[in-house]
Amino acid sequence: MNLKIDYNEKDYNIEDIYNSVEAVSNLSDEDKIKFLNKVFGYNNIHFINHPYLVNYYPLTNGPEKTGEIQIAQYITEIFNLEKNNRWCQFIGDKQTKNLVEKILLESIEQLPTTKNKNPFKSILRDEFKEKNDDLNYLLKHKEFALKNIDKFFAFYYFQHIIQTILNLNNTGNLINGTRIYPLYFTLETEKLTSSRKTNINGYNQIAALKNYTLVNDNLLGYLNDMINIINNDTKFYTLTELLNLPFNQRLELNKELKIVLNKYKCINMKDEELSEDLLTNIEIFKKWLSEDLAKETVYRYHLSVEDIGNYMFLKNRGSLGKTLTLKKEMLILLTAIIVKEEKMLIKDVFIEFEKRGVFFDRYTREEVASFYEKMNILDKKSDSGDVKYVKSVL
């Protein structure tokens, strides 16, 4: 919709409400404004549950504001929200169901429009194909969407981040494209042992790459600087695209990379011999960057990933460290968008979770089935209970 993204309280203009609402009894104008601010004020938007007000949700006052805007831009990019008609209809909907909504939506000034340049691109291509269908289904159920839209976007944002970290670190595999790497989640209420898959193939895989998260990001940036000069363009190239360039362009990129690495080698006294192979030289560059980037900067960069996880997806398990975890509300949301309208075999539900990057071991699957039974959405179709369907949540 190209609305202003760096907005603040000044953009939330409700002067018309102050002017049109008459005070009762002996209420002074000052007291009237105080009362109206309690109902309609900028910091109380969340209490008025209406899709149009999503456009005005307050940003943090402070350094976190920049991060919030960047996350919103990244989400806009991966969902292509500006071209999603259902999303635009949802946040542009001014229909009201009570007097408070009617007064506010008839009085509030629309945010200024501007052409926003989105600086973000995702390296993931064919992964999370279901995300747009999931979003469209969620938006069909307005009340449920308003309660869960933050969780929905948080889930897909976190999944994109951790899968990007894993893909970028497996440079050699990227010649064949990106993939979803299995990461095992548990439920918040589960008790864990060290032998569980969530400890072997869970958040520990992400934590183990903390020294490479910034390295891989910088590496891709440097390679893009080189290929942009060679091709005289400003396009963003993924590593998959770089490794699959036409033969002559790969030779040219490797030649340019070797010039840079030879200078780097002399300045920083490195021992490795350079190669005639592009991928080998990329791996050498990655190794050198990991040795030379300031440790504090590397740590802070990865900490931002952990901060995102701590918001909704990580639980500290004492000596086991942090594990990928689904809270009850998130499990309900994901089940709703997976099953949609028609009941689904529970084994197929688990397959759909995996398509969205959420893997469960057999113990967690049993816990999930038990949770569905308590919710009364598990339908057993045989005496033995071997055939189980999950019913629609909504």
From TrEMBL:
Superkingdom classification of source: Bacteria
InterPro entries: Dnd_assoc_1
Name of the protein in its database record: DNA phosphorothioation-dependent restriction protein DptG
